[in-house]
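Exam review. A common question shows you a sequence with its structure tokens and asks you to describe the fold in words. Practice with the pair below. Do the first one on your own.
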Amino acid sequence: MIRCTQVMKKLHNLILFVGLVSAQAHSATILQYHHVSEKLPPVTSVSEDTFKTHLEFLKKGNYNVIALDKFIEHVQQGKSLPVNTVAITFDDGYDNNIEAAAPLLETYNFPYTIFVNPQLIDEGQSYVMTWDELRTLSKRGAIIANHSAKHDYLHLRKDGETELQWEKRIRHDLTWSQQRINAEIGHNYPYIAYPYGEFNSALQKLVKELGLIGIGQHSGAVGPTTDFTRVPRFPSSGIYSNLKTLKVKINSIPFDIDKLIYTNSVTTERKPSFTMSFKSMDFSQGQLACFVSGIGRATLTWTTKHEVTVTTPEPLPNGRSRYNCTAPSKTHKGRFHWFSQPWVVQEK
């Protein structure tokens, strides 16, 4: 009887291990850039030398750098991916993308995606690429995708605007932008990178209804349990461009999340919380650590062996904040599970 129990326990552990490895074989990370320039705001910029250092690291490390469409297709369909898979993205379509970023990416033969604002292009804004330039990059392999018509805060209602009026306006914004990109570039990828990385529950619902995939600016790895109305990316510019810390993020893996519960990522609460439960745990409970941006360690309350509630010990300020949670993997030595919950705190 004892021997049977031991055999069953070993079998259970083996099944758990195989499940964890399988989940992580379908995971990957997305990098987010804006400017490749030394003349523009450093908070959203990397120099050409720094950007080249990032690309050289990916090449020498034999990372599987793939196009965003293949990346998303594999993860959504549960197809196997090397653990070291990475996708590269740019927001806003700045002119330095074709002048500085594209030549370097092409040298390394790395695919990439640029999220653009069609109305700003149509208006001829001097700081963004033209449709001709974007067509040139598309012919050379770049994916051109939707970043909204003119980079508005999509979740915000105008003064006196009802929820139905807001929904109609944003629905038009997103579908019109998709149509403009399709008309000018000739492809129609169902992605929307949220301007400023901000989204609320109503926007997520609309994005899902439109058949789009919503992509944010909060940190984390992407895997089978990722909510595809809030796909994470690792910002890689400014203070986040340091390769020492970026290596850890590139090598991160997702938590195997069963449920994620929170009221709304745009909130008037000063101490918002979220609860996540895990299908399986490739980490020790005591090694899970969560931090609140600008404040420090978050308060963790384990309600069961597989469920934890995360909150801030101090009130959040107005604007954007994040809770970042990490834990070292048991099965992938040197790698960390990573999840980020973004918040936008508004006045009541």
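Now try the second one, then compare your answer with the model answer below.
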Amino acid sequence: MTEKPTIVFAGDSLTEGGRWQEWFPDVEAVNLGRGGDTTEGLIERLDEVTALDPDTVVLLIGTNDVANRRAVEQVVRNIETILVMLRQALPDARILVQSVLPRGAEYAEFLREINRHVWQFAATVKAHYLDLWPVMALEDGSLNDAYTDDGLHLNEAGYEAWLTELVPGVERVRDLPPSSRPIRLPELGELS
């Protein structure tokens, strides 16, 4: 019997609220979402993710940085740091980073700027980017009212909308070969 592949879902309360094992029954789904978490908080607890040696990491983080009034550059740098640290610790893992979800319209341009930078950076660490805005955002850049009761957290309809993009995104990523390890050249003393 083959072990089920492990997928870690890492992020904040949006991730924490997910029923990942129910929605992804063919894998060992581990929920490492933590309410109120920021990019800095996730950096501090990345060892929880890497200790599980997952086949795939699904990342959604950044919305609480907006609430804490972090600069775009700081949020982008932290997400890039998370991706680099994951790639270094898990060289064979598949990494799927998702766009920071929309909130109120007043945050739209700020979030779009973060997402543009993360989208551009993801490929440099062999991570895959999933843009959730087409399904989650209204024309003004706010989170679709049908998907939230408070303008931030997702209701059942919000999770269903998210899954319409996430399930095929995870399937595509899982169908790809693992990222290959970089070739390590022997040290001079190792040559005989």
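Model answer, second protein: Residues 6-175 form a domain with the Rossmann fold fold (CATH 3.40.50.1110). Residues 180-185 have pLDDT under 50 and may be disordered. Full marks require stating both points clearly.
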